[in-house]
Amino acid sequence: MIPSEFDYIKAKSIDEAISLLKDGDAKLLAGGHSLIPAMKLRLNRPTKLIDISRIAEMKGIKQEDGELVIGAMTTHYEIMTNDLIKKHLPILSQAAELIGDVQVRNKGTLGGSLAHADPSADWPASMLVTDAVIVVAGAKGKRAIKAGDFFTGFFMTALEEGEIVTQIRIPLPSANTKSAYVKFMQPASRFAIVGCAVVVTGNGSIDDIKVAFTGVSESAFRDTAVENALKGKKADTETIKNAADQAAEGVSILSDHFAGEEYRKHLAKVYAKRALTEVA
Ligand SMILES: Cc1cc2nc3c(=O)[nH]c(=O)nc-3n(C[C@H](O)[C@H](O)[C@H](O)COP(=O)(O)OP(=O)(O)OC[C@H]3O[C@@H](n4cnc5c(N)ncnc54)[C@H](O)[C@@H]3O)c2cc1C
Question: Is the domain of 66 the same as that of 166?
């Protein structure tokens, strides 16, 4: 449980962090709540840690040009308690409240969680249903990556070598939008065994709907079968049940000693029904 030896450097700006990352063996340190446990288990052995926790331009939540802009170093706790988030994107406060414990929420960051891309992490599902765009910066400049293109596999993202997640931009939803995030959690860590995020727009009937899962497969995914079963319809009990029954079909399902494949798939349908019922 002791990490291998490493140097520690505190970066003062995004540019400085990018420049320090040119040493291929270096790793960024955000909240440390995924990286440090991995280093203690020697799953990760960086020789240099670049602490980005003091970079002011990577922190905070603001409203700008019809979007909420969340700095990558914003903690889960700050998202959970922020008034702009509560007003415009309550699904994010709801998801943040379900992450880990007080210490994890106080130290862990949105950017760190997205870059780490744990298949059981809560944020990816919410990013997919809110049409989030992940802004990254590297030696070649800036890129804006849609959440749908960002999570590419098991602990894998579209981030290229030397790139840093700097901010997350999410369009403000229209007035007739409702959302919910529910999860079945691992009882010790509270990671999602199944997490389901739903955003619905409509008045009476459903004009648009986005449904995403985390914890179920190698990476978070939009479930278009559930979405298509509800588009243009009234969200009554029968329609919701029929739609939820289609959840997690045709995807490869994770299996571990907490939840086997069949049980996980069953949970996906149960939690889809719960999330859809909550928004209805
Ligand atoms: C006991 C425990 C319980 C937990 N429970 C949950 C839970 O219920 N739900 C959940 O979703 N998560 C949970 N987590 C994980 C937690 O949310 C972490 O905070 C998160 O996964 C990583 O964020 P971090 O800021 O700590 O990143 P770090 O651990 O510092 O970094 C993680 C990885 O991302 C890289 N990185 C960090 N920031 C950036 C950036 N801006 N750009 C590019 N790369 C970057 C690092 O180099 C590293 O490889 C739990 C963790 C613990 C220890």
Answer: yes
In a domain, 2, yes or no: no
Q: What is the CATH number of the domain that holds 185?
A: 3.30.390.50
Count of CB atoms situated within 10 Å of the CB of 169: 17
What's the Cα-to-Cα distance from 175 to each of 64, 91, 171, rounded to whole Å? 17, 14, 12
Task: Report how far ligand 1's centroid is from the alpha carbon of 245 (Å).
Answer: 32
DSSP strand pairing (48-51 vs 26-29): parallel
Q: Is the CB of 150 under 6 A from ligand 1?
A: no
Instruction: Supply the residue whose CA is at minimum distance from atom 11 of ligand 1.
Output: 121
Residues in the chain: 280
Confirm whether pTM is higher than 0.70.
yes
Residue 128 structural domain: 56-171
pLDDT tens column, 201-241: 998 899 999 999 999 999 999 999 999 999 999 999 999 99
